[in-house]
Amino acid sequence: MTEKKKAAIVAVFIGIVLMGSAAVCLFFQKKEEDLTATIHLNGEKIETIDLSKVKEPYQKEIQCPQGGSNVIEVRHNAIGIIEADCPDKLCQKQGFLDQAALPIVCLPHRLVIEVVRTKTGSDAAR
Question: Which of 21, 74, 114, 115 has its CA 20 to 30 A from that of 6?
């Protein structure tokens, strides 16, 4: 085998490895999604927030009819409970939702925050 053929084979091999590495990086790269949060209190929807349009973080206090309150922080593509006067504070410990996943729930206050991925034009066709 000539030196030119060996060099060509090595070049092709390196190209394949580089393309495979790039594909793996793109596959595992976290893509920012457009997310919408829905806040339910006592089983009723009280607010829907388009998290993808939030420019500056803000806080919102939710007063519960049976007493008590939760403070929610809304960020760009994330939402979480940062303060609660319930006994166990499990809702605070759930952290911030930044993807469509399990909801944040405060059982004593009957508060549920769900996050869903907003469907875009390409998703709507599926």
Answer: 21
